[in-house]
């Protein structure tokens, strides 16, 4: 019988930090992000459908994602979908997970791995661009990984930005709605938007800052500008995926401002990277989202659910 795991169960069974730990363990066990299967995108009247299959060791799975740009105006989520987890050796279906909830867990967990390796240990000021589920998830990841005391929220919708700022205040940090220039005083800049053009002036970002850009996965869209890419030590999930999908990098490469060698490292290297001794230029982590990440975390959620049933927990 296939187990059904909704959003509440996913959030209860795996914390952002535990999700980051699961990704690190998989990388340490030899998972190679460069070998990941590319996602496919199919245009449909409401937007597009994305298919993201993966297989590794005891597991296989596929996430089907719906991206419906018109949904927010209807009071609905822009990202929808589901994840079907299979037993690897037999391809027997094991679980169906809420795809949006899994994505909301996965992307901050990937960023958390980058924060552990690339953010200054005393990072106290974060700027969050966006006000949707990824903004909330990245705020939680930042608070779990660094001693953040102040948060600036930057978003197009003032009411939604204020809501996120109040949420951050309820977590014990000072929070306010700000403008893009807040990056000038940031230790962490978390870009969680559907923007297609740069969100801020990359020249303002201090050398001690980590910028994580997670909102786009198409070659013609970006959240950060060429100036930041040229200044930064750039890390990605996998070179193959970034140089196929990451407009944040592909646009500056197309301009001739940087070459493909602008990528200094990947998440596999970050998983066991020792803390840096100096931070003389910004670090940029560009994430496009990869199917192996969903597979690792779907399996971790399923294992946690199985363990909980075995101990009688609900």
UniProtKB/TrEMBL annotation:
Signal peptide: none annotated. This is Ornithine cyclodeaminase family protein.
């Amino acid at each position: 019988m296939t187990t059904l795991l909704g959003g509440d169960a996913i959030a209860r069974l795996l914390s952002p930090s535990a999700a980051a730990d699961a990704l690190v363990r998989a990388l340490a066990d030899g998972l190679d992000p460069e070998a990941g299967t590319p996602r496919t995108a199919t245009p449909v009247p409401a937007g597009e459908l994305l298919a993201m299959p993966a297989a590794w060791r005891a597991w296989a799975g596929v996430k089907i994602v719906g991206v419906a740009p018109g949904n927010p105006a209807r009071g609905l989520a822009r990202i929808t979908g589901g994840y079907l987890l299979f037993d690897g050796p037999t391809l027997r279906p094991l679980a169906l997970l809420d795809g949006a909830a899994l994505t909301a867990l996965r992307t901050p967990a990937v960023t958390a791995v980058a924060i552990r390796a690339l953010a200054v240990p005393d990072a106290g000021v974060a700027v969050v661009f966006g006000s949707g589920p990824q903004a909330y998830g990245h705020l939680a990841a930042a608070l779990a990984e660094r001693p953040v005391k102040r948060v600036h929220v930057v978003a197009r919708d003032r009411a939604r930005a204020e809501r996120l700022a109040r949420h951050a205040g309820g977590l014990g940090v000072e929070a306010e709605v700000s403008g893009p220039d807040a990056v000038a005083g940031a230790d962490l800049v978390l870009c969680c938007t559907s923007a297609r053009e740069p969100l801020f002036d990359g020249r303002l970002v201090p050398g001690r800052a980590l910028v994580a850009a997670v909102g786009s996965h198409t070659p013609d869209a970006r959240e950060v500008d060429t100036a930041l890419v040229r200044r930064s030590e750039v890390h990605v999930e996998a070179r193959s995926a970034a140089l196929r999908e990451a407009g944040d990098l592909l646009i500056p490469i197309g301009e001739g401002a940087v070459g493909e060698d602008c990528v200094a490292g990947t998440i596999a290297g970050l998983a066991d990277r020792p803390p840096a001794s100096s931070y003389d230029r910004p670090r940029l982590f560009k994430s496009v989202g990869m199917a192996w990440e969903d597979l690792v975390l779907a399996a971790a959620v399923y294992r946690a659910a199985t363990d909980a049933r075995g101990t009688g927990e609900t």
